[in-house]
Amino acid sequence: MLDFGGQYNQLIARRVRDNNVYAEILPYTVSLDKIKKRNYKGIIFTGGPNSVYDEQSPHYTPEILKLGIPVLGICYGCQLITWMENGTVETAPVSEYGKIELKARTDSPLFKDIDKKSIVWMSHTDYISKPPKGFKVIGKTNDCPCAAMENADRKIYAVQFHPEVTHSQFGKQMLHNFLYEICGCKGDWVMDDFIENTVASLKEQIGDKKVILGLSGGVDSSVVAALLSKAVGKQLTCVFVDHGLMRKDEGDMVENTFTKLFDMNFVRVNCKDEFLTALKGVKNPERKRKIIGKKFYEAFWGEIRKNANEAFFAQGTIYPDCIESGKGKAATIKTHHNKVKMPKDIKFIDTIEPLRDLFKDEVRTVGEKLGIPKELVWRQPFPGPGLGVRIIGSVTEEKIRILQDADAVFRDEMAKSGYEKELSQFFAVIPDVKTVGVMGDHRTYEHLIALRAVTTDNFMTADWAHIPYDLLAKVSNRITNEVDGVNRVVYDITSKPPGTVEWE
Ligand code: XMP
Fold first, then answer.
1. β-strand 43-45 against 71-74: which pairing, if any?
2. How confident is the model at residue 337, as a pLDDT?
3. CA distances from 102 to 81, 115, 208, 363 (A)
4. 164 part of the active site
């Protein structure tokens, strides 16, 4: 795929991989020679935000269309092909945005097995007013006289819409058609190939140098750790900062996994006490987040500074992190600190991000294949500030203990009942209140535990989960019986919005 800067570009690569065909994304600045050498079966020109007539807009040598390799242009890519082949691209009298009806010529191999009329996702202000010579229009909409075109002899295809987004009803089939009918791909690529290629290229890139990785115990950094361990073994040092705000026994689980199952240097920085001291008496959620972030930064870089010379720095960045960090100006609801800022005085050879093109579920598949235990690979999201944002009000040793125990009961019951599969995320919270209860003949005045469970596919919005009453009753009974210091359990029935998933 030749990348012209569109927002869905990784999604196109993802859809290609879903078809068991390997895809790599190259910047539009890559040389034609490099493309020639790689023996590609097909080339996709991606979308992009520009207009082909802008001076600044990304272009490519028209020679690429003469290599005899099948090409599919998408959105900007479609206009670029038109421009390269001397057709006409102009500002459209009516720009199209959203779901639009496409009338397609289903005798084109690109549109094999799709309906003559279907919905596609459009997002453009320029359009092709005159296709280039030798190109036939194979799709139109009410406002777009050339929404798709082909030069079947030269195997060049172009669509103005976005087949890669799910709103395009037959988008999947169109990409499948391009790959199989037009490029002649066989569909024999699997994730094992990703692992093999990545390990080989990591070996080559790292050579005999060292690599340092910050391991959080989350899925992404764990998978990077396993890949690097496979590639360079003991040249890898993983630094795991245990701030004491992990779930029950989690720090030990991470340590056991990576010291027993993988070959690497593993450094656990235990700094619970420093975190507790810094958080003492602090109740404001944003201040707590900031303090935890700052302390984490100090502990992490303090340790890493010792090993930083002549080393690579690896990160578990995955594709959604890249788009989110590029999004810019959204209001700060909560300060997240996943992407650790680098101190200016540390000079690494380079940064390594082997998962930056993958989506979460692909990362989990890689993790399973690398032999990371299931409970780690399928771990639900856990906020960077850990239990610090689930302990409302000030953080104390006692509240951490109570919360860890209550949360462990909740997790145990959800796992035993199998209900955890229905949930996107679930956990216990300890609000900053005590309530009156009765135990035997005695009055009690103890902590309250709130249970939070949500279903969502994107975490931007979420529903509270309708856990069966009997199951909730079991969890509540066990918590009040087994966890010292708790006499009441409540269930949070707030969606997001207006609530957030975490309480702070
Ligand atoms: P909210 O509470 O914002 O949470 O609705 C959405 C998702 O993000 C997780 N979360 C965090 N993850 N660092 C993280 O890595 C953070 O500071 C953080 N705060 C919230 C939360 O657990 C949920 O999955």
1. parallel
2. 44
3. 20, 10, 55, 35
4. yes
Give me the DSSP letters along 129-157: EEPPTT-EEEEE-SS-S-SEEEETTTTEE
pTM: 0.78
Question: Which residue is closest in CA terms to ligand 1's atom 7?
Answer: 459
Render pLDDT for 135-185 as a digit per residue (tens, 0 to 9).
999 999 999 999 999 999 999 999 999 999 988 999 999 999 999 999 999
Is 183 one of the catalytic residues? Answer: no
For 364-395, the pLDDT digits (tens) are 999 999 999 998 999 999 999 999 999 999 99
Among 336, 426, 494, the mutation site with the greatest number of ligand 1 atoms within 8 A of its Cβ is 336
Q: How far apart are CA 437 and CA 435, in angstroms?
A: 7
The CA 196 to ligand 1 mean position distance, Å, reads 33
CA separation for the pair 153, 131 (Å, rounded): 16
Q: What is the residue whose two structure tokens read 């290229």?
A: 201
Distance CA 318, CA 16 (A): 18
The set of protein residues with a Cβ atom below 6 angstroms from ligand 1 is: 334, 336-338, 381, 383-385, 425, 459, 496, 500-502
DSSP structural state of residue 340: P
C-alpha 38 to ligand 1 mean position (Å): 41
Q: Which ranges of the chain have pLDDT less than 70?
A: 322-340
Question: If you measure from the C-alpha of residue 354 to the centroid of ligand 1, how many angstroms do you get, rounded to a whole number?
Answer: 23
